[in-house]
Structure formats: structure tokens, C-alpha cells
Description:
single chain; about 450 residues; alpha/beta; Rossmann fold; 3 domains; seven-stranded mixed beta sheet; 16 helices; about 40% helix
Amino acid sequence: MSGDLSFFFYPKSVAVFGSFKEGAIAYEILRNIVEGGFDGKIIPVNPKGGTVEVAERSFEIHEKLDEPVDAAIIAVPAKIVPSLIDEIGPLIKGAVVISAGFSEVGNDALEQELVEAARKHGVRLIGPNCAGIFGVHGKFFGSFEVRVKPGGLALISQSGAFGGAALAMGNDEGIGFSAFVSYGNASDLNESDFLEYFADDENTRAIALYIEGVKDGMRFMKALRYATSKKPVIILKAGKSTSGAKAAASHTGSLAGSYEIYRAAFKQAGAIEVEEMEEVFDAAKAFEMYPKAGKRVAVITNSGGPGVLATDKLERLGLEIARLDEGTVEALKSFLPPQCSVKNPIDLIADADYERYKRTVEAVCRDGNVDSILVICVPPIFIPSEDIARAVVEADCGKPIVANFMAGELVKGGVELLENAGMKNFPTPERAARALFWLSRR
């Protein structure tokens, strides 16, 4: 086991090494830490000394580190990193090495030197050649990437740039994060260590992992099995094609290996493998709402087309379109207009209002053949999407409900109302169907 890494994600004190000229990486990281509201001790270090103004606070720049801190963030030229670690080793628990210029450019000897310096002092390393880390619940934004809202998703990314893009996209998608770590060359700590750590982190509800390749397959499998036994693990694997695998090998110097082997391994460990970036967030949204869901789905819609699209997608994914009980069909007929379809998918037709949606959700929810419900709403101009959102939220139903309110401006109010009640919206019927598929995998 990798042991406790909380000094990285919940540090009480941090030192930042590098240039504090505006626009320099160390300056940007310092700014992120201060603006992000970190309330521990912050020590900027540069041999030139001086002061730095950041986010309306003034810091004295220490010429060297002269007191113990939990974590050091290092953005100095690669060639001086090993000697710096040797010097500050006795004062720190962990170091995040942002600096590039190591094994990723063929400079293996320098990276080896760095690892040996850290081992000598029992210091754990993240990086080198990485974008840093966030411990969102510790209000610690030790990276130059965009800050995010607190929530339940821990994002582990081999690639810094992918991580940064994913954080920005997560913000747009309304995802809350517990942590982010970009681990670059994985000279010491790697994806397996982080999987084990976040499996036990109480603020993390789901783990998302972007990998190009792993160095130690046995260790990875053990860590992945451990993590999936505790919470959902969503994996996006890059380098699936032959040329993709070659590119991945040159990018972080890892063995990309045959994709088929990875795919089998993910499946065996019970991880959720996704195909593209937006799916990482769709899966995360699903698991933020529910731990799991059964395979038998009822679809409720006010528009035939999207209902059919959802049904097609559900069946292609191997889910079942639930067969409604006779009693449920009778109950629906008792209050729905005769032109509504009471077979699953249930079409409430265009003028469906609050009452019609709420009663239908409740009737279907009571059916023993139904495990989960997909509610689609394409509101006509004359019925506010807020009404339908309220119906979904206020319906008395204890089963997983996934919503697809479409499209755009027309449903903005309804989507906001859902979000405030802790229900995430999926913008297309297919994405909503996939969310139920991932829940069924648990």
C-alpha cells in the first residue's frame, strides 16, 4: 500500500520554489493557492529573496526553506531539482515537481538522481513533468490549472494538459471535484498509489483516471480492484490504436502495451471504461447521484422521437425496456388522455404538464418490474420547463431517475431547478441512456 498521502491533498503548510515574476509558473501556482483560500502556511522560496504581491497579499520570499512544511511545489530548472530535494529533504514530506526536462526528453539519469535524493530522505514525489495537484476540500490549489468547485470526483491524470482541459470542462458541466493530480513521469508515485489513496478518501465518491499506459501491470490490477471494491472508477485510456500507442510512449515514456490487454483488465477489475472525454463527466454525474441502478428501465417522454432514440440506445447498451405490470398500465390509463401511449416508452404527448409528469413518475416508480426511470422533456413554448422539473423533483419515488431536458435556452430554468435539487441533467437522450448503463455496471 502507498500509505497516507494526505500531506499532499490536505496540507497544513506548503513551500513554493521558483520565479515569482508575474506570469512565471511558480507565481501562477502561488496565486492559485492564495486565491483558492488556502488557510495554512505559505512560504515562497527563491535564492534572490525579496517580496511578492499576489491577490492583495504580500509575502516575503525566503532565500531558502528554513522550517518544516508538508509539501513543496517545485518549478525550477530541471538540472537543479535533485540537489534542491537533497537540501530540503529533511524538512518536507512530499514534493510536487512541475519542472520538465527529465525522462520524457530522454534524460533518464537526471530523473534517477531525483528519485535517489527523495528516497534518501523518505520524501514522496509527484512528477516530474506534471501540472500539479488540487486538494479541493483542503482548499489547496497547488497547480496552475483552473480552480474547481468542491464535490465528489477525484481526477487522476497522467497528462497535465488533459487534466487541465478536463477540469475546465468539468466546471462547464457542473461537476464538483474532491481532488486532482497530474503525475507526469510517475518517477515515484503513480496511478496505483493514487487509486489506493482516493479509494479511502472520505470526500471522494468516484475516481476518474486518464492513462496512456502503466509501468507495473500487476500492481495496477491490485490497486484497481481495491478501488473498485470501494467506489466507482471511471477510466479513459488513450493510445488504443497502434499509432496512438506509439505517441503515448513518446509523450510520457510509459509502456502503452496492447489495448486488448488493458480492456480485459479493466473489465475484470470492475472498472467503468469510457470512450471519450464527455463520458467521463456523464459517468461522474451519474455516480454523484446514485451508487447503482438495475437493468430494467422505464422511459417517460413528452415527445416520441427522443423517446425512441433513448429506447434504441438503452437496448444497444444491453439494458431492458421494462415490461409494465397490468396494474401500472390501468393506473396510467385512469388519468392520461387517450392519445397518450401507456406502453413503455410512455409518451405523455406535447401538452404534458406538472400533474401528468408527477403522477406518471409515481405510478411507474411503484411498478416492481422497473429498476430505474429515464425522464425526457422537450417543453412546448407554452409550458415552462420549470414546471416539469418540479414534477420530477417532487414525485414520490425512491428509484434512480435520470433526466434529459432538451434543448438549450428553452430548458435552462428547468435544468437549474433540477441541479439545485441534486439532479443532474443529460443534454441528449443517448447520454442519459449511457448514464443508466454505467449505473447498471455497478
